[in-house]
C-alpha cells in the first residue's frame, strides 16, 4: 500500500462524539503530525468558527490549528462570493456561519436579500423560518450548509441541519443548493486548501451517506470507521463500498 500524502478527516463521529473524544483520535492525529503528513478536518457542522473548533480539539488533546479546519460555513461563504461578491444574505445559523459570511465580505440583512443560507441553529424560531421562506419565494438564492438529517452526540442521534432545511423546502417548493458532504463543492475546496490531488489524499469518516459518498463522488480513496452514524451491520448492503474500513482508528495506525 502506497502511503497517502494527505488526509481529509471528519469530526463528529470520527474524532469525537459531542464533547467526548473518541478512542485513538489523538493517536491517529499524532502519528500524522509525526510523519509530517498534512491533514484537514472537514465538518458539515456549520455552527462553530475555525478558531472554536481548533480550541475544542486542542482541549481534547487533538492537535489542530484554525487553518487545519474547513467548515460548511466557510465553503458556503466562498461559494456565495463566486456567485455574487458582497451579497446581501439572510442567514439562519450560529457563530460559524455569521463569522464566515462576514470574513468573505457579505452583508447580513433581514430583507431584499440575494441569498438565503441556513446552517445549524439551536435557537431556531418560527419567525426565522418564515422570513427565510419569504425571501426564497421572492427569488433569493437558497443555500443550505449541509443535508445531514441527524448529528451524533453523546446523547444519541439528534436532528441535523438537513431536517431544519426541509421546512423551508417543503414550504416554498424549492430545493436548496447543498454545500457540505457528500457534495463536490466542499471536496474541491478541501483539496484546494490542502494543496494535494485526489489520488494522494485519503478521506476518513464515519457517515456513509455524507463522508464516504463525498470521497466516492470525488474519486478519492476512503476509510470508513464504525464509531459514529453508520454501523458495521449496514456494511454488507452498501451499494458502493469504501476503499477500506476499520472498527476503530487504531487499526489504521500501521498504514500511516
From TrEMBL:
CDD domains in the cross-refs: HAD_Pase_UmpH-like (cd07530)
SUPFAM superfamilies for this protein: HAD-like
Gene3D superfamilies registered for this protein in UniProt: HAD superfamily/HAD-like
PANTHER family, alphabetized: 4-NITROPHENYLPHOSPHATASE-RELATED, HALOACID DEHALOGENASE-LIKE HYDROLASE DOMAIN-CONTAINING PROTEIN 2
UniProt entry keywords in alphabetical sequence: Hydrolase, Magnesium, Metal-binding
Functional note: Catalyzes the dephosphorylation of 2-6 carbon acid sugars in vitro.
Record-stated family: Belongs to the HAD-like hydrolase superfamily. NagD family.
GO molecular function: hydrolase activity
Record-given protein name: Acid sugar phosphatase
Cofactor(s) needed for function: Mg(2+)
InterPro entries, per database record: HAD-like_sf, HAD-SF_hydro_IIA, HAD-SF_hydro_IIA_hyp1, HAD_sf
Keyword Hydrolase: yes
Top-tier EC class: hydrolase
Domain of life the protein comes from: Bacteria
Known EC number: 3.1.3.-
Amino acid at each position: 500500500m502506497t502511503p497517502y500524502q494527505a488526509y481529509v478527516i471528519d469530526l463528529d463521529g470520527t474524532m469525537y462524539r459531542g464533547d467526548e473524544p473518541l478512542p485513538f483520535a489523538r493517536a491517529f492525529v499524532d502519528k500524522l503530525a509525526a510523519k509530517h503528513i498534512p491533514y484537514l478536518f472537514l465538518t458539515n457542522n456549520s455552527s462553530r468558527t475555525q478558531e472554536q473548533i481548533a480550541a475544542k480539539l486542542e482541549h481534547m488533546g487533538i492537535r489542530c490549528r484554525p487553518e487545519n479546519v474547513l467548515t460548511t460555513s466557510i465553503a458556503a461563504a466562498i461559494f456565495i462570493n463566486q456567485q455574487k461578491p458582497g451579497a446581501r444574505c439572510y442567514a439562519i445559523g450560529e457563530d460559524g456561519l455569521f463569522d464566515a459570511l462576514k470574513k468573505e465580505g457579505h452583508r447580513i440583512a433581514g430583507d431584499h436579500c440575494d441569498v438565503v443560507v441556513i446552517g445549524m441553529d439551536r435557537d431556531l424560531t418560527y419567525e426565522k423560518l418564515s422570513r427565510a421562506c419569504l425571501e426564497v419565494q421572492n427569488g433569493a438564492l437558497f443555500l443550505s450548509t449541509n443535508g445531514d438529517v441527524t448529528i451524533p452526540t453523546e446523547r444519541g442521534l439528534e436532528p441535523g441541519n438537513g431536517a431544519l432545511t426541509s421546512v423551508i423546502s417543503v414550504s416554498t417548493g424549492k430545493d436548496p443548493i447543498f454545500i457540505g458532504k457528500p457534495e463536490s463543492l466542499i471536496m474541491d475546496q478541501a483539496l484546494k486548501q490542502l494543496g494535494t490531488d485526489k489520488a494522494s489524499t485519503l478521506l476518513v469518516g464515519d457517515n456513509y451517506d455524507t463522508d464516504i459518498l463525498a470521497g466516492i463522488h470525488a474519486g478519492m480513496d476512503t476509510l470508513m470507521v464504525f464509531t459514529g452514524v453508520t454501523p458495521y451491520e449496514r456494511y454488507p448492503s452498501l451499494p458502493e463500498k469504501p476503499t477500506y474500513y476499520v472498527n476503530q482508528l487504531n487499526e489504521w495506525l500501521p498504514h500511516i
